[in-house]
Amino acid sequence: MSRIGFYGGCFNPPTKAHIELAKKAQRECNLDKVIFVPVGDSYRKENMAKGIHRYNMLQIACSGEDNLQVSDIEIKSNKDYKAIDIFKILEEEHKNDDNFFIMGTDNLKNIPSWKESEELVGNFNYIILDRGLIEPNNIIGNNQLLNNNRERFTIIKNEEFNNCSSTEIRKQIKNEQKPENLDNRVYEYIKQNNIY
Fold first, then answer.
1. Distance from the Cα of residue 145 to its chain's centroid
2. Would you say 70 and 58 are in contact if contact means Cβ atoms under 8 Å apart?
3. Which terminal CB of the chain, N or C, has fewer other CB atoms within 10 Å?
4. Which parts of the chain register pLDDT below 70?
5. What is the distance between the alpha carbons of residues 86 and 176, in angstroms, rounded to a whole number?
6. 128, exposed or middle or buried, with CB in 10 Å at 0-12, 13-18, 19+?
7. Relative orientation angle of helices 184-193 and 51-62, to the nearest 10 degrees
């Protein structure tokens, strides 16, 4: 049985922080691997690069890291997946493994409002990335559903990346600045494909 962390998100673009946080989660939670799961094109968000580009950028950023992989499960589908849908698919594909879903505290705060939230919280295990902006234990303690399932959440402290955001990196690229929190190979891919 493997221990696998599934790290979902937009990754628009994937930053050095995304990679380092995945590696930290892998080390601290004894995961055999972390699989990035970028959202598909049906996910509507302003300034979102095409799914294939975000998938390719993640592949570039993960190259050379044996324990980091990228899934195209959402990218190759036109379905409008909700978290519960994709979690069930991944659980089925990895039913003989010990699975964890990696997310930031911003998503932890939102889980109670998501589709089928009781099943989502009660049936899956999570690794929460605490970047020092919102206190995850307060979020859990102040919500009955989360608090009742407190044992489902493992919190990893990691404040060194609290200023690193994809939004800021996109701004820097638009201003023709080379972002320091972006892999050079990813930056070259962005420039070659005129993504942002």
1. 22
2. yes
3. N
4. 159, 161-163
5. 36
6. buried
7. 150
